[in-house]
TrEMBL record:
PROSITE patterns: CN_HYDROLASE (PS50263). It comes from Vibrio chagasii. This is Carbon-nitrogen hydrolase family protein. Residues 1-28 form a coiled coil. One of its GO terms (molecular function) is omega-amidase activity. InterPro entries: C-N_Hydrolase (IPR003010), C-N_Hydrolase_sf (IPR036526), Omega-amidase_YafV (IPR052737). Residues 4-241 form the CN hydrolase domain. It comes from the Bacteria.
Length: 263
């Protein structure tokens, strides 16, 4: 049976300070006895998430074809022999995206642009339109960003994957309940890397709750972090589907139910 180890870096993000956040990730990984096959960082790990004005995050966004952040993470990936999955603000032909980059020691391998949009995403970012799956270490991975897991229309497309990698900026623990539900619904692992710390803007202070966690396809809690900056590694071995779907072709059953209800 294939298995994969995933290192979750629950970062205390330094607001709008890319160099310090990169240095902190490097320091945290250097402090580990070993780093997993995959290293997962939070949503927008290098910049923070909430701003007074859109131009603040636009100025921090990077074109992935020429990105100092991706180059730095690629060097870290090579050093620790890991695949880094990180939330980074992206600029492309004048558009800006809340994106995730998948990076190895040779550079950018894949990217995903957040499809769902909170009220803050709508202020700063264009909307993504494509999901991402990729093969690694014999397993199939999907990527979702934060609010994405609230939408079964998005997550249902990941029913065939083994693991959903889920960078987040959650302020409340209720969102993790949704993550557990999605693990059960789709029969896959949900690996959420949240952040800690604050984004301070004129109108309010956004506080992030940590609590990064991993749910199995059976909805079992495999790992839960505390509310402080931390690095934890989990190994995924059990790829069995959620028990309620044994013997059921889920997508076929969904189509039949939809057909019946729409008569």
């Amino acid at each position: 049976m294939n298995n994969v180890s995933i290192t979750i870096v629950q970062l205390e993000v330094e607001y709008k300070n890319k160099q310090k956040n990169l240095a902190l990730v490097s320091e945290l990984l250097d402090g580990q006895a070993s780093v997993g096959d995959i290293t997962l960082l939070p949503e927008l790990f290098s910049t923070g998430y909430i701003f007074n004005h859109a131009y603040e995050v636009h100025e921090l966004s990077e074109n992935f074809a020429n990105s100092e952040t991706i180059d730095s993470l690629s060097r870290l990936a090579a050093k620790h022999d890991t695949l880094i999955v990180a939330g980074i603000a992206e600029e492309d032909q004048g558009e800006h995206y809340n994106s995730v980059a998948v990076i190895d020691g040779t550079g950018l391998r894949h990217k995903y642009r957040k499809v769902s949009q909170t009220k803050f995403d709508k202020l700063y970012f264009s909307q993504g339109s494509e999901l991402l799956t990729f093969e690694y270490k014999g397993l199939t991975f999907g990527v979702a960003i934060c609010f994405d897991i609230w939408f079964p229309e998005i997550m249902r497309a990941y029913h065939s994957v083994d693991v959903v990698l889920h960078p987040a900026n959650f302020g409340g623990h209720h969102s993790f309940v949704i993550g557990q539900a999605r693990a059960l619904e789709e029969g896959c692992h949900i690996v959420t890397c949240n952040r800690v710390g604050q984004d301070v803007v004129d109108e309010f202070t956004a506080t992030y709750c940590g609590g990064s966690r991993v749910y199995s396809p059976k909805g079992d809690l495999m790992l839960q972090c505390a509310d402080k900056q931390t690095v934890e590694t989990v190994t995924i071995q059990d790829l069995s589907l959620a028990p309620q779907y044994n013997g059921v072709e889920l997508l076929d059953e969904m189509q039949q139910i939809t057909s019946i209800l729409n008569r």
